[in-house]
């Protein structure tokens, strides 16, 4: 084992523990959707506001808009505010209370109470006081207005009522501009001026990570938030602050550039300058026209009879009823429910309409059209019309496994899987992976095994899906060369991430599989483990200790009998073996199936793979050098 193996692994574990917001649709899809503005009346509004066609991840919580046909409104503490004007550079807006629009008699009485962490008043406001259900007043009739059930009175700071208002049944304060208050006073307090003042509204400044958003926009991004975390959507991915200039998109271009250079030199040598310049011209034209489109087309042509059915975009649109029913969002696009002309239900994955996903598209078709196994999702066709790309699969009524892991313990009973079912799912996924490695001439490494990519049919039979990152290799190849890390944080094997850990191979999928099974077992860590302050206990370390001390697992609250205990023990032991940092310590996937199907008493307890979790390394993380 290399000497720098363990420090590197502890850094790896730390990186894994950094919470990464779950990415919904493909990056570019997010970038595009958050670039759209909310339109209502003659206004177009962007971050921090969201609503309508702007999904919540394009805005900030608390800034949802609705449109009453004329103007956009937001609601806070039961009062709706109509947006009259907005200034993005100063983060200010002018709003008026919707219930006092052209009226003094709202159906219900509320004060103006804005959430102070989101909004602050600017200096130019003052309150108008509105009184209802008062004892008889002796004041100027100009301060009086009539409501269906009562007479109302109003004051501004400068225009006090001559009688105490303390006895009035209802008192409401509504902010207005100071200039409007002055106009009321100097105009002698006519109702027209009051209406003008209320309709004129007041000024507010919003506070929603303003400076972060400014930086994001300046770097070419669109602002938004995912689970309350500010997020900057960039052309080529997400960022917590600003769009970096380099990224996978650029590096891919550099690679293409280098390949072109090399090919050019070879051509120069072989066919002479004259033909070469012609070839370059053709190439430039081709590049402008289609970038990676041509690759995909060529791939489909070469695929011949193996190529699955091809659909037009209009077919896909018809199939999904114009993308009305969204089933979910995967790593590379949104998934919609659809129906084939023969009535069969399908799931249609619409890939983000960006260039550069050609390789993912090829990976997906190349991998999945070769497979036929109960634990691999059935591929039914595809659509490829320039940037419009879709993949069509069999429909999975129970959706993806993550739903059952992360919502477990919720009141919705249907989301709580029995141990028996969890075990069957674990075995099914292992069988699917075994098939990918052994079942066909070409070995397929998936590289993105995680709960979101495991679909469940009506009988909870798991099906591996999403082959966008897959790699096909000859069966004789035991190690795979890769240009960049692929996978999802939390499931990537350390060797994919950092070469110090060994070569990348099918054992890398075994690692991801182990993480997945461990999550299935531990999904309810904070609810099910009967330990006080359980949230502070590092679940993996805790469970490892239980096993090591020979304790039984009935402390996992959902375990009710011996059989379930045995199942849980097997799943935990197998997953601990699979997530060993050193690939050669991990079992092969056929061995995993064997381990799961045998008795847990035959299984030894592996080394603690979490030895370097933050729980056990209390020192300053900076001392752990890579
Ligand atoms: C509005 O606030 C004032 C105090 O600032 C209070 O006296 C009044 O009852 C409140 N009105 C309503 C409708 O809650």
UniProtKB/TrEMBL annotation:
Q: What is its main location?
A: membrane
Q: Classify the protein's membrane topology as the record does.
A: Single-pass type I membrane protein
Q: What is its EC number?
A: 2.7.11.1
Citing just one GO molecular function, the answer is: polysaccharide binding
Describe the location of the Protein kinase domain by residue ranges.
Answer: 321-611
Entry's Gene Ontology cellular component terms: membrane
Which positions are annotated as binding ATP?
349
Q: What transmembrane ranges does the database entry give?
A: 6-25, 254-274
Question: Catalysed reaction(s)?
Answer: L-threonyl-[protein] + ATP = O-phospho-L-threonyl-[protein] + ADP + H(+); L-seryl-[protein] + ATP = O-phospho-L-seryl-[protein] + ADP + H(+)
Q: Which UniProt keywords apply?
A: ATP-binding, Glycoprotein, Kinase, Membrane, Nucleotide-binding, Serine/threonine-protein kinase, Signal, Transferase, Transmembrane, Transmembrane helix
State where the protein is found. Answer: Membrane
- List, alphabetically, the PROSITE patterns matched: PROTEIN_KINASE_ATP, PROTEIN_KINASE_DOM, PROTEIN_KINASE_ST
Query: This protein is called what?
Result: non-specific serine/threonine protein kinase
**What is the organism field in this record?**
Vitis rotundifolia (Muscadine grape)
Lineage per the UniProt record: Eukaryota, Viridiplantae, Streptophyta, Embryophyta, Tracheophyta
């Amino acid at each position: 084992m290399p000497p720098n193996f363990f420090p590197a692994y502890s850094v790896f574990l730390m990186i894994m523990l950094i919470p990464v917001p779950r990415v919904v649709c493909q990056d570019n899809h997010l970038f595009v959707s958050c670039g759209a503005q909310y339109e209502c009346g003659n206004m177009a509004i962007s971050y921090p506001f969201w609503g309508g066609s702007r999904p919540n991840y394009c805005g900030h919580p608390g800034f949802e808009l609705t449109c009453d046909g004329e103007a956009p409104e937001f609601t806070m503490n039961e009062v709706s505010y109509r947006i009259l004007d907005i200034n993005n550079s100063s983060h200010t807006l002018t709003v008026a209370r919707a219930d006092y629009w052209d009226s003094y008699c709202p159906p219900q009485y509320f004060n103006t109470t804005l959430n102070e962490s989101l909004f602050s008043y600017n200096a130019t406001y003052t309150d108008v006081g509105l009184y209802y259900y008062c004892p008889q007043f002796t004041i100027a009739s100009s301060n009086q207005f009539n409501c269906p059930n009562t007479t109302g009175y109003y004051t501004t700071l400068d225009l006090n009522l001559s009688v105490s208002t303390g006895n009035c049944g209802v008192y409401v304060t509504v902010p207005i501009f100071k200039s409007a208050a002055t106009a009321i006073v100097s105009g002698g307090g006519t109702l027209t001026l009051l209406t003008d003042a209320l309709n004129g509204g007041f000024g507010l400044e919003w506070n929603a990570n303003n400076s972060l958003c400014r930086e994001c926009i300046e770097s070419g991004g669109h602002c938004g938030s995912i689970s309350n975390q500010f997020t900057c959507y960039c052309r080529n991915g997400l960022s917590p602050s600003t769009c970096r200039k380099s990224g996978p998109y650029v590096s891919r271009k550099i690679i293409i550039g280098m390949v072109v250079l090399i090919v050019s030199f070879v051509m120069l040598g072989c066919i002479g300058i004259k033909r070469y310049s012609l070839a370059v011209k053709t190439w430039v034209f081709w590049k402008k026209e289609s970038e990676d489109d041509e690759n995909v087309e060529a791939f489909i042509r070469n695929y011949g009879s193996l190529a699955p059915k091809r659909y037009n975009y209009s077919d896909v649109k018809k199939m999904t009823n114009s993308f009305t029913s969204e089933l979910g969002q995967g790593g590379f696009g949104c998934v919609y429910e659809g129906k084939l002309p023969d009535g069969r239900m399908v799931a249609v994955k619409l890939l983000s309409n960006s260039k550069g996903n050609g390789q993912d598209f090829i990976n997906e078709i190349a991998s999945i059209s070769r497979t036929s196994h109960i634990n691999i999702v059935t591929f039914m066709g595809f659509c490829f019309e320039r940037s419009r790309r879709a993949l069509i699969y069999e429909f999975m009524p129970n959706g993806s496994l993550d739903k059952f892991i992360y919502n477990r313990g919720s009141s919705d009973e249907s989301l709580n899987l029995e141990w028996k079912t969890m075990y069957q799912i674990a075995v099914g996924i292992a069988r699917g992976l075994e098939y990918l490695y052994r079942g066909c001439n070409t070995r397929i490494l998936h590289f993105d095994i995680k709960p979101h990519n495991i679909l469940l049919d009506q009988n909870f039979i798991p099906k591996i899906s999403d082959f966008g990152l897959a790699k096909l290799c000859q069966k004789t190849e035991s190690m795979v060369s890769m240009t960049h890390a692929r996978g999802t944080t939390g499931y990537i094997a350390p060797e994919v991430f950092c070469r110090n850990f060994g070569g990348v191979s099918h054992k890398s999928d075994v690692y991801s599989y182990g993480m997945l099974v461990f999550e299935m077992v531990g999904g309810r860590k904070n609810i099910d483990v009967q330990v006080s302050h359980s949230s502070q206990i590092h679940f993996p370390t805790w469970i490892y200790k239980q096993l090591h001390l020979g304790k039984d697992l009935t402390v996992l609250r959902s375990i009710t009998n011996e059989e379930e205990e045995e199942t849980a023990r097997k799943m935990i032991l197998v997953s601990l073996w699979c997530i060993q940092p050193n690939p050669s310590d991990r079992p092969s996937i056929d061995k995993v199936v064997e381990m799961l199907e045998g008795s847990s008493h035959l299984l030894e307890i592996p080394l603690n793979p979490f030895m370097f979790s933050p729980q056990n390394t209390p020192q300053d993380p900076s001392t752990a050098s890579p």
